[in-house]
Amino acid sequence: MTVPNIARIALSIFTLTTVACSGTPVVDEQNGRPTRVATAAEEFHAAAAVWEQAERPDYTAILGHLQAAVARDPTFSEAWFNMGVVYEQIGENDDAIEAYRRAHTTDGEMLNALSNVGVILLRQGRESEAEQLFLEVVAQEQFHPNANLNLAQIHRNRAQQNGVIVEAEADEAINRVRLALAGEGRNVHAFETLAAVYFDLESYALARLVCENAILSGVESAALYNRLGLIDLAQDDVTDAYANFR
Asked: Residues near 181 by Cβ (< 8 Å), separated by ≥ 6?
């Protein structure tokens, strides 16, 4: 079973708050006059502006600004991270991995970068390498939502073998979801995954409880209603299943 990309960190291009006031003056070779070069922070914000203003982002322009940012400041971890996101968007996964790793190298606390590398590796079928990265992340941050959720999905997949549920793997999946919820109590993917694991175990009452509690708490998710419909079908309640699917 393919592990879905449930836990990739979204673009953080809007998070930088520090902006340098001036760029580096250089001499224009054509007229000999000093001209100003944008600072790394200004290039970063220029990338953000391109992202925000366009209905369909101009990834080439965004990458140009981010590359200029890291050229001016090679330790600019946010720029490296967002470069990884953009490379992922355009399918350049090797470049994305390199950018994410540079982000983590320049800022050892940027664990989201490692988590995103893990997701790419999962998509490439490199589950063992991905798992090691997620474990590295949670070793440093026990309740990291995305790393725990991807570990939960790995264990959920392992729990489903030849039509038989391996309960130890399912239990570990549940444990990982609970750790994710400890880190982010309203994480929609956590509720979806937890309900799915209970459904796999045919613990329909618990699966229903997870879905209904999440919906009552304001978590918006079509997948939760779909799961309720599947629970209804499993219990031969076609009428309620139809209502939930709608």
From this structure: 145, 187, 190, 191, 194
Is 132 within 8 Å of 124 (Cβ atoms)?
no
Span 97-121, average pLDDT: 95
Summarised one tens digit per residue, pLDDT across range 31-42 is: 656 555 678 888
For the chain, the average pLDDT equals: 86
Tell the residue number behind the tokens 């997701």, with chain if given: 119
Cβ proximity of 55 and 62 under 8 Å: no
Structure-block tokens of residue 211: 């879905």
Residue 11, Ramachandran bin (φ over 0: left; ψ between -120 and 50: alpha; else beta): beta
Does the predicted TM-score (pTM) go above 0.85? no
Sign, Cα dihedral of 83, 81, 120, 194: negative
Q: Which residue, 3, 1, 2, is CA-closest to 152?
A: 3
Write down the pLDDT at residue 37.
62
One-letter amino acid at 72 equals R
Closest CA to 197 of 172, 234, 222: 172
pLDDT of residue 213: 96
Residue ranges of alpha helices (H) inside the chain are 40-53, 59-72, 77-89, 93-106, 111-123, 127-140, 145-159, 167-183, 188-200, 204-216, 222-234, 238-245
Give bridge partners of residue 37 from the DSSP assignment: 24
Q: Which two tokens stand for residue 206?
A: 């618990």
